[in-house]
Design a protein that fits this description.
Strands 1-8-7-6-5-4-3-2 form an eight-stranded parallel β-sheet. 34% of the residues lie in helices and 19% in strands. It contains eight helices and eight strands. It starts with a strand and ends with a helix. By secondary structure, the protein is of the alpha/beta class.
Length: 219
């Protein structure tokens, strides 16, 4: 069984103190730093680009878990790789050729993730599970932080876990969207070993990052 890891989303951080916020997450026991990149086109919101990632990269040695919600995705991969991303996750709907996008990320010696939106089917990625490192299941519609968790994605997570175990693929299962102290347990039971959380980590228990990270990991 894979170790449970917590990847706090900096979407909920204080952007005026982003470097210090990342330091605080590292001190609080975060396993990774989750960076949501939105383009206002593939999803209805704008966040940060490679220049910001490059600026915050020196503040932590933790893995930068970068989720690209941008289309077309291929033209930006080199920039995010050079900015300091360690894992680059994309959506199959954002590329004309999933296999080529995987190869492009590998070219820059980065780990590869593929993300499925709540209504995206496993069939979109089934043939690539032996070529990637991570599947990110979205438990909200991507585009905004602070949305409510959608339990209807859990059967998809369970099915992916079965496939990965049966085929003995070395693939992490990550879940992102409305993760809190209550649903984190069901997400882990369904097969997730990486939990992404923003609002819960930064806002619960008066913003006690260490306590909130530990509660998510151990609940």
């Amino acid at each position: 069984m894979k170790k449970i890891q917590i990847s706090p989303s900096i979407l909920s951080a204080d952007f005026s103190q982003l470097g210090n916020e990342i330091k605080r997450l590292e001190e609080g026991g975060a396993d990774m730093i989750h960076v949501d990149v939105m383009d206002g086109h593939f999803v209805p919101n704008l966040t940060i680009g490679p220049d910001v990632i490059k600026q915050i990269r020196p503040f932590s040695d933790k893995i930068f878990d970068v989720h690209l919600m941008i289309s077309p995705v291929d033209k930006y991969i080199e920039q995010f790789a050079n900015a300091g991303a360690d894992i680059i996750t994309f959506h199959p709907e954002a590329t004309k050729n999933t296999a080529e996008t995987i190869k492009l990320i590998r070219k820059f010696k980065k780990k590869v993730g593929i993300s499925l939106k709540p209504k995206s089917e496993i069939s979109l990625i089934r043939d690539y599970l032996d070529k990637i490192d991570l599947v990110l299941i979205m438990s909200v519609e991507p585009g905004f932080g602070g949305q409510k968790f959608m339990p209807e994605v859990l059967p998809k997570l369970k099915e992916l876990k079965k496939i990965i175990d049966k085929e003995k693929y070395n693939v992490d299962l990550e879940i992102d969207g409305g993760i809190n102290f209550q649903n984190s347990k069901t997400a882990k039971e369904a097969g997730a070993n990486i939990l992404v959380s923003g609002s819960t980590i930064f806002k619960e228990n008066s913003g006690d990052l260490k306590k909130n990270i530990n509660l998510l990991r151990e609940n």
